[in-house]
Amino acid sequence: MVSKLKAIAKKMWFKLLISVIIVLASNYYLQLTQNNWSFSLATKFAFSWHTEKFLLGALVLLVIDVFIISIAGSFLVGNSFYLLGIILLGIANAMKMSLRMEPIYPDDLKMIIEWTMLKDILGNPLFFVFILTVLGLIFWLAFSFYRSLKLSLTKQKVRVVTLLVTSMLLVYISNFNQPNNLLRKAYDKTALWIPYSQKMNYYNTGFMGGFLFNLKVEGMEKPEHYSKAEINKIMTHYQEEADKKNQKKSTEEQPDIVYIMSESFSDPSKLEGVHVTPDPLKDYRDVASESILSGQMLSQNYGGGTANIEFEALTGFSMALLNPQMTTPYTMMLPKKENFPSMVSTLKSQDYKTTAIHPYNTSMYKRKDVYKVFGFDQFLDEKTMKNKEKLSKEGFISDKSAFKEVQQVLKESKEPQFIHLVTMQTHMPYTNKYSGSKYQVKELDNDVNIVNYAQDIAYTSEALKGFIEETKTNDRPILICFWGDHLPSIYPDSVIDENDKVTTHLTEYFVYDSQDTSPTLKQVISPFYFPSVVSQTAGVKATGFSMLLEEMHYLLPAFENEMYFYNQTWKKEITLSKEDQAIFDDYQMIQYDIVSGQQYSQHFFK
């Protein structure tokens, strides 16, 4: 019996050694994907600059590997499953770094069940290979587990103990951001965390360090002096201002309000090194010239992050004030809430009927769940919309169809309506979207992605112009906020390098008000100020929160981390006056109260 146990122990130590080698190699591979496949940078990180952090990351991966092996009951199957997962994770990280200039976050792993989006991005052949591979490996893992039930009692005991230990370790690791976490303390000895730049976090602490840093965390850090009394003081001040403004609005007709967040809509000509002819935004510029506000909107991201821009525009809250690990509130925070104040709840308190429209599936970014939290009366998607025409076989439901859907909803009710449309037509991929395009790109070898993208935004501009003209025949006045969520990730590195960070984060926007014929005001804006713009419209009541937003907009027209438009100049950092800092602190206090606090200010938004 003793000799048998020694033999088992010897075999286990040998397998553990092999697993250690596999884990070290896999961690090095992840580092390669993080460093643009540079063997030089990955090697220096692992064996020269940050060896301790590399080994800590490898230790976490070893726990994961051993956990999978203990479930499978097979060294071969467990390691195979682990390696495929790491390979796919590395490929996804490299793709995201290339397309969006940011790494994979833990919450991004939920996207693996978004089959429709994966199919659209990968294309049919690669998608089916991916599905068959994953299903085959899952079946292999399940079969291995079934077969492992026949292992000897001694091996089963070792396996169960290993499974319990690794499970507890994984739970502990998942609390990386909690106070006194020993793994976090080990990292903190040498790690330089950069809260405002996740890309730099991953670069400074390695893929695994950055990944761990982005595990679950509170939405915001608690501000100093936070209390119910302080919240009440802020609310009283701004509500008095709202009451004064509302006295003048009591007899005005309520307008229909339409939000249009246009996928990847931006002006290519704003980028140095990009020359598209003819102008694909000619119709857009005609529409913008009739608006009360237009200009550039500061997007949080380049190449993606649609849900974050939507979060800002609907809530009036800035992503820049959230903890850096709160990378996607739509999937990480909002589904856990019963309700959350937003434009939806504000307008519903003013007897508006509210509708969300997204010509795609409902599960993307958990929109179905999030829209319930916001309180939308109805959500129309690709299955429930009446208008589903496409401009190409490889494309999505067209913007013309989406605008037609909006117009039909507007005509269905005599009540004032708030409609929030998130379009899909101009979403990537662009390569095979259209068989031909009348647009050309100079000095970039007529890149097919840019050419087709130009055709896409031209179609959107044309449809938008028609939509605006059609709304002029409606009985009720209308306010339309239109904006692009982010630039598309189609430009070569040479173009990105030629432009500064701010330029690659500026999209187009306008606010059209059928009741206001004032000359167009050119203005830079952040999307979280749109609720303030709406509240200043004739017929829409101001709230205490909208008055706070209005003061914030006047003080700081646009800002994200390292991008502040202050005193008509873009700056990386700013120092506010005492009076301005007090307004900023009020805004931060209210946002914390709703995001992570006691929500004392719920009625501040009505």
Explain what the structure shows.
- The protein is of the alpha/beta class and 606 residues long.
- It has 21 helices and 13 strands.
- It has helices spanning 2-34, 39-49, 51-72, 75-100, 115-122, 124-148, 153-174, 182-188, 198-213, 228-247, 282-288, 306-315, 329-332, 343-348, 367-374, 399-412, 448-471, 493-498, 530-535, 544-555, 578-595, and strands at residues 256-262, 275-277, 293-298, 353-357, 378-380, 417-422, 440-442, 478-484, 506-513, 521-522, 558-560, 563-566, 569-571.
- The strands form 3 sheets. An 8-stranded mixed beta sheet has the order 5-4-6-1-8-9-3-10.
- β11 (558-560) and β12 (563-566) form a beta hairpin.
- α1 (2-34) packs across α3 (51-72), α3 (51-72) packs across α7 (153-174) and α5 crosses α6.
- It is globular.
- The N and C termini lie far apart (75 Å).
- The model has no long low-confidence stretch (mean pLDDT 91).
Structural class assignment: alpha/beta
Portion in strands: 5-15%
Low-confidence blocks of residues? none
Spatial order of the strands forming the largest sheet: 5-4-6-1-8-9-3-10
Number of strands: 13
Radius of gyration: 26 Å
Distance between the termini: 75 Å
Give the count of helical stretches: 21
Shape: globular
Q: How can the largest sheet be summarized?
A: 8 strands, mixed
Helicity level: 40-55%
**Averaged pLDDT, please?**
91
